[in-house]
Design goal:
Blueprint (H helix, E strand, L loop, with lengths): L17 H10 L4 H12 L3 E4 L7 H6 L4 E5 L2 H14 L5 E3 L14
Parallel strand pairs: 1-2, 2-3
Length: 110
């Protein structure tokens, strides 16, 4: 089966590997959206951060005690998130799955 552009969604890939993953981890460390979305996440726990990447949003929220898990398709981004989480003293639950094939053991409100 293909989408409207002739692509097979079962073979979806990500380009967030290697150099791109390192760039995201090193140069996308903060931003106003971390605090902006915190109240929504806090009110809607448990939450799932889809495509959490290097953990820029997820790690501060988990470090502050919010119930947030993450799912991402890039093993390199996941490793960057694990490093950031260890540095912040937290251990988030992280899943390696493409978004279009989510099969998680838990349900989320947000």
């Amino acid at each position: 089966m293909s989408d409207d552009h002739g692509r097979d969604p079962s073979t979806a890939t990500t380009w967030h590997h290697g150099l791109i993953a390192r760039w995201w981890a090193n140069f996308n460390l903060d931003g106003p959206e971390i605090e902006f979305f915190r109240s929504y996440v806090a009110a809607g726990q448990p939450a799932l951060d889809v495509g959490y990447g290097s953990g820029r949003l997820l790690v501060p929220w988990v470090a502050d005690g919010l119930d947030v898990d993450g799912v991402d398709a890039s093993a390199d981004m996941i490793e960057a998130c694990r490093v950031a989480a260890r540095t912040a003293g937290c251990e988030p639950v992280l899943y390696v799955q493409p978004t279009h094939r989510l099969d998680l053991p838990r349900r989320y409100r947000t």
